[in-house]
Fold:
Amino acid sequence: MTAAAGRGEDADDGPDLTRWRGIATDPDADRSQAEEATPEAVARLRARSRALLRDLLRPHRRRLGAAIGLLLSQNAAAMAGPYLVMLGIDRAIPPLRAGDAGPLVAVAGAFGAATAVEFLARRGFLIRSAQIGQAVLLDLRQRVYGHFLRLSVAFHERYTSGRMVSRLTSDLDSIAELVDGGIDSLVLAVLSIVSVAAILLWLDPPLAAVTLLAFPFLFWLSRWFARASAGAYRRTREAMALVIVHFVESTRGIRAVQAFRRERRNQRIFDAVNDDYRRASRDAFRLIATYSPGIKVIGNVTVAVVLCYGGWRVLDGATGVGVLAAFLLYLRRFFEPMQELSQFYNSLQSATAALEKLAGVLDERPAVAEPARPVPLPAGPPRGAVAFRAVTFGYRPETPILTELDLTVPAGQTVALIGPTGAGKSTIAKLLARFHDPLAGTVRLDGVDLRDVADAELRRAVVLVTQETHLFGGTVAENIRFGRPGADDAAVEAAARAIGAHDFIAALPDGYATEVHRRGGRLSAGQRQLVAFARAFLADPTVLILDEATSSLDVPTERLVQRALGTILRDRTALVIAHRLSTVEIADRVLVLDGGRIVEDGPPARLAAAGGRYADLHRQWRESLL
Amino acid sequence: MPAESDGNPAPGVAAGRHPLHNLWRLRRYLRPYAVEFGWLLLAALGATGASIAIPLMAQRVVDGPVARQDPAGLFRLAGLALLLGLAEALLIFVRRWVQSSSSVAMEAAIRADVYAHLQRLPASFHDRWQSGQLLSRITSDLSVIRRFLSFGLFFLVLNLVTYLVVVVLLIRLHAALGLLVAASAVPLLLVSRRFARAYHTASRRMQDQQGDVATLVEETAQGLRTMKAYGRGPELAARFATGARALHDTGVGKGRLLARTSARLDLVPNLTLGVVLVAGAAAAAAGVLTIGELVAFVSLQLMLIWPVQSLGWIIANGQEAATAADRVQEVLDTPPAIVDAPGAVTLPRAEVRGRLRFERVCFRYPGAGAPVLRDVELTVEPGETLALVGATGCGKSTLLSLVPRLHEVTGGRITLDGHDLRQVRLASLRRLVGVAFEEPTLFSMSVWENLTLGRPDAGEDEVRAALALAQADFAYDLPWGLATRVGEQGLSLSGGQRQRLALARAVLGRPALLVLDDPLSALDVQTEALVEAALKRVLRETTALLVVHRPSTIALADRVALLDGGRIAAVGRHTDLLATVPAYRAVLSAEPPAATTEPAPGGRGLVRS
Structure:
């Protein structure tokens, strides 16, 4: 109440762009559990994302080896270039002056060979690295997607779909950027630097020692960058997720947005999150804008020092002009890749931030986990006996919705659940469908704790149909077939007929092959419910749970569905939740719930006569009829 | 595959347009930074100049002080090299620092514009377009464009200038060898052109597939409960695998293309270098060229390796940006179909009486064969409540959506107090109309924000009144009261709770016209009775159009219209229609039209509502 009372102040659509999201009931709403803000958690996550990376690369070890081999050859060939130039200048020109072209031909031949090797090796390496990179991306994408599928409904309610989309698109994009931009170039640059350092040492150790003095500075600068950019890129990932969440929600709810002239405020909110992302990226880019010229300074200072010291050594006679020339050439090859390296280091940091987010998701244990040792459901009829034993459950532990609930439904019985909003009807349905596990007590199907039933088997046995009827992209037939993927067209049509959906489907432009488009845009809410019903019918479960599944149907259609249900439910267990008592007619038994407790229990006729709550509701309902 | 890109109706670039046409059109976003861009280019050129000068210093050192045994000259030149080096770094720093804010600002500006445009595009557009395709346009595509505008384009110009300057210097150093290096541009150009074409196609395919994958993900997130309820994880994973694999294959193809071209491009300067080495050595041997000059020539020439090596990447980046620009412009080029007509009027709330008339209204969904509504004639008098009744899928919701012009009539017209709705300003019209949809859309924001969606100026009292009317006082009992964030789509609330919030939202601020689509369907009987009683008071003074499925809700209405086959089949009072129109009776009652209104004996007879 206090929070609500404070709202009056910003009622003028003022610059309140932070409060619009409201306060989440779960403080961890925006992240996976692994992403705590403590330094230890950050370190743990880094370690995990590195482990993930190793794990992703492991299957490609052999190809990676080949790629590195090619890379080394390419590098060697590329390195040979300046060396051969030096050879040409120092060794081939004097003989040439004397009329001997032999050394020059030899050098040119070697140069040609080096060029050819570089060409082939570079091509081969780039192709392999693209293959590896794409394979890693594919693997990662599928892993994260698969893991999202395994995570519980409770997780998704907290995490929101926009964030899930963000992880699987934007975060993967920034990893892909690294792959495209050439993780290869990173390796290449490192190799080139190491090999140049070796060559420099070999050419002129004292001069090389002076050059290598640059390393501590490089190291120090890089460490600063690594630390600063890790935080900065983490912020960009989070900011991007908010942009995506807001974007996805407002395009999805465009009807409400437009009908309520939400556009302006939406735009302001979007501008705010967009601007947040802009600032986060700018900050990240500024780090690299500092880091990269910083490297340049170190490189150029080194060149000047080498020039000075090297020139002095030549003057001193300690080394030759050719050596100095080669040294200066190599020095470029030493610091140019350093620039590249800073670029790729930058991409790496950005990708690592994204990888951390993904590692955080992958690290999330499914709250409703697949059993390690599944217990098979007993075969043979009668099947579908449901038992709740001392079940306590709440979406938040401190506010239980069900406390110590006991409920036994014998196989084949149709039970109607009625009661006011918040009585716990849908919660019972969700527990039976194992969207959640009870906090205490057990839910059993045919004597087996649901926690011990393999997911595939449980889903074959229990199907929940809610009033939110989601249709997937694809045809009407495909959506019905979702209930039983192997079903043939005849079975699909039979299911639609049984439920009374055939007529409207047949009247669609392409009949069963009509694309339902985006979230069933073209079907009305009622038609979607019919498709969902046909889907459930086709699934043919032992236990069918209907949660307000007929709310959008007109009366005759609902009636038709109920007639069908009369037959469908005859030989299976059913839990029916409906506000409309019409549905109760098909029930063998009625449970009246209030505040998470069963307050009345019995056959509808007896309850109606008993003069309790059901009788009241029943009377009201009778009065509401035609 | 359901997620094929044929879900995107926009045909893409018009035939015959230059592939870079759409990228070029985005230059308006570059314009605020045009002067800055010029300066930055100068800074970059300066930096490049400095980096070219440094090897020249080296040459001077080798040829001058070293040859002449002149330590003072050596230190002077080395000091100069140091200064140049520092200047180079400073210029790079300035360029990158400034660029880091302008490039992201450009990206953000395009994103904000696309979002604004998407909000203006009508529901029919959003029905047709896969949301993942839209999403990938404002994320992946924009960052590709940003990268091109800030780096690709920049380096294209820079590398071109570097190339030209170096070549000119080389020609000045040694005309014949320099011209040889200049000629090496021809094969570079040929290779680049072929690559650009092939890569263009590949990158467009990749971006479309990225959109498809985003769509799959978005859809999975949406249908998560359904997926869980049926345990269809493996099937969805397989479907996703197909999409992800397509992306993978395109990615590998692109990589292969880039690898081949990169290697080829690399070959050119290397071969040139070989020729220069041989020819240069010969020239040095002949005494035409000093060794210092040859060293300078070669080290200058080595400067061409990076620009050429990055050429492949720049072209790739450019092509990606071009196709990304195509995709972004496809959205921006879709004209909003429902906009204010020239001379559209604003209707002040106080002057609206609320006479709503449908005159021969026809409607057909874009691309659909048959019209949903045909010659609908209907009048709702000021203050009257009219209930719309009809079989599932007969077009009731469609008819309602025409009132706030979420869809536009395709024939006839709708008037409010005699004003054609198309002649009323959209903002004004939508302010007058309060809507509750059959599916209560809640956003993941605070309850307050969800309620005041269209009325950010609403006061505490108004909100309280609206919540009371909709029997939604439960909102005050949420953990943080009205500041509580309701989960995505309000999923942490029950269906009935969501519907009541949506109803409260519709009635908030007393709109002149209420359009409610089956507003009580998810309520239990008791709550329904309470809401009905409260609604009745509101409806007394408001013109309202309701879609109704149940006899109980019809009590709210003064008159009822029966929609059948896209036409209004009958209009009248509920009791009259019940008595005289068999079709009406059939829609509301499950019994055969001939049956009596008395319940049949036994349990079966109860089943009527």
User: Anything to note?
Assistant: Chain A has a mean pLDDT of 84. Strands of chain A lie at 386-393, 402-409, 414-418, 440-445, 448-449, 462-466, 543-547, 573-577, 589-594, 597-602. Chain A has two domains: 30-363, 386-624.
